[in-house]
Specification:
Length: 378
C-alpha cells in the first residue's frame, strides 16, 4: 500500500505505500518521452510540419458544413496513416526545425473524435483542442506533464491500483537486498510529483533504488541508510548507473530520526527537496541490521511508530511547501493478529500536519511466493 500526503497534509495510497506531504503543499511531477518509435512498418510517431499542420486544421475548421469538415479530417487521417500521398505537405522525416512529434495512435484517435462528432460545433471543439496540442504546452507547478497531450503518457499509472508484472531489473537494479524497493514505485512517484532538476529525499535508502531512478529521470537525490555495509554496496551500484545529466546522487550513512538533512542539502547549495519517499522496514519482519536505532529492531509496534514519527518530524522542515511525501509500507501478521502498519504509519504522518492525498494499492504479479504457488499447483 502506498500513501501520498501533502505537506499541508494529503496522502495518496500507492501499491504498498502512502504518499504524504506536510503542512506545506506538495508537488509531484513527471517528465518522460511522449512517444516511442516502433520497429519496421509499425511507425509509432507521426512527425508533422508544425506550421503546415496548423494551417490545414484551420482550413478544415472553416469548412461550411459538417460533411465537408469530416471530408477534410478523413483526408488528414489517411495521409497520416500512409493510405494516400501527402498532397498537403504535412509529414516530415525527422524531428527538427518547425516540426512536432505525436504518438501516432493518439493523433489518429483525436482525428477519429472529429469524424465521429454528431455536430459541427463538437467537431470544431476537437479540432481546436488538437491545434492547442500542436502549438502549446501546458504544465503544472508539480510536474512536467503536458496537460494538452496527457493521453501520450502511457507509462504513467493514474489508477489507485497499480498492477505491475515483475520487479524491474534493468541496468544496475538488482534484488540482492532482501526487502528492497521495486524500481517502478519510485519511478512512478517521481514522474507524477517532480520535475527534471528537482530534489528527492529517501530517508530509508537501502540498496539505492530511488537514487538510481533519480539518475535515470534527471532528478537529484539524497538518501540516508543506517547500515554502513548496505550503504557501501548501494553506492557502488549507484556509481555504475550512467549520469548523463550530472545530477547529484548523495548517499549518506546515518539515522534518519536525527540526521541533519538541512546540512546535507546545504553542501549542494539547496535548502529543500520537492519529494520525500519513505520505504521503512515493516517493523521486525526483516532485521536489516544489528543497530538498536534501526526501526526493524524496535521491540514493540508502539516503539516502531514513535521512531517512525521522529523521522517524519525530521524530514518535514526540508520538504518544500505544497509538495508531497510518499509512504510505501506493508502490514504484518504476528501471533494470530493482523497488524495494520500501513494505517498506523499513515496516521503518524497525519498527526504531524499532513493531509491525505490518496491511497494506492499495488498488485505485484510475479513474486517468489506466487511462483511457488504455481509450481505447487502444477
Amino acid at each position: 500500500m502506498h500513501g501520498i500526503h501533502k505537506k499541508v497534509g494529503k496522502v495518496k495510497r500507492c501499491a504498498k505505500g502512502y504518499m504524504i506531504s506536510p503542512t506545506q503543499p506538495v508537488v509531484v511531477a513527471e517528465n518522460t518521452a511522449l512517444f516511442t518509435v516502433l520497429p519496421g512498418e509499425q511507425i509509432g510517431v507521426a512527425i508533422l510540419n508544425k506550421s503546415r499542420a496548423l494551417e490545414v486544421l484551420a482550413a478544415i475548421e472553416a469548412s461550411p458544413t459538417l460533411d465537408s469538415l469530416k471530408a477534410g479530417a478523413m483526408e488528414l487521417k489517411e495521409i497520416i496513416s500512409f493510405k494516400r500521398p501527402d498532397t498537403l505537405n504535412l509529414l516530415n522525416i525527422n524531428l527538427n526545425g518547425d516540426t512536432v512529434g505525436f504518438r501516432k495512435d493518439v493523433l489518429l484517435s483525436e482525428i477519429d473524435q472529429v469524424l465521429e462528432s454528431q455536430s459541427q460545433e463538437r467537431a470544431i471543439y476537437y479540432l481546436r483542442r488538437l491545434q492547442k496540442g500542436i502549438n502549446q504546452v501546458r504544465t503544472t507547478k508539480i510536474n512536467d506533464i503536458n496537460l494538452l497531450r496527457w493521453k501520450e503518457y502511457s507509462d504513467i499509472i493514474t489508477d489507485s491500483l497499480w498492477i505491475l508484472g515483475k520487479r524491474g531489473t534493468s541496468g544496475v537494479h538488482m534484488a540482492w537486498y532482501w526487502g528492497n524497493f521495486i524500481p517502478q514505485i519510485p519511478r512512478q512517484l517521481m514522474l507524477r510529483y517532480t520535475k527534471k532538476g528537482d530534489w528527492v529525499l529517501d530517508p530509508f535508502a537501502g540498496s539505492g533504488t530511488t537514487l538510481i531512478e533519480c539518475r535515470r529521470l534527471q532528478r537529484n537525490g539524497l538518501g540516508v541508510e543506517i547500515n554502513p555495509e548496505v550503504a557501501s554496496k548501494a553506492q557502488e551500484l549507484i556509481s555504475l548507473e550512467s549520469n548523463p545529466w550530472k545530477v547529484v546522487s548523495d548517499l549518506a550513512v546515518g539515522d534518519s530520526t536525527d540526521f541533519d538533512f538541512g546540512q546535507a542539502l546545504h553542501r549542494h547549495s539547496v535548502k529543500q527537496v520537492q519529494l520525500v519517499i519513505l520505504h521503512p522496514p515493516y517493523h521486525d519482519i526483516i532485521k536489516f541490521s544489528s543497530d538498536p536505532r534501526d526501526l526493524s529492531n524496535c521491540r514493540t509496534v508502539d516503539e516502531f511508530l514513535q521512531r517512525f514519527g521522529s523521522v517524519i518530524e525530521n524530514v518535514t522542515p526540508v520538504l518544500e511547501k505544497k509538495r508531497y511525501l510518499s509512504l510505501v509500507i506493508g502490514d504484518k501478521y504476528s501471533k494470530g493478529e493482523w497488524i495494520p502498519l500501513g494505517f498506523y504509519c499513515m496516521n503518524e504522518v497525519l498527526k504531524r500536519g499532513y493531509s491525505l492525498k490518496a491511497i494506492i494499492v499495488k498488485n505485484f504479479e510475479d513474486t517468489r511466493a506466487k511462483r511457488n504457488q504455481k509450481n505447487c499447483g502444477g
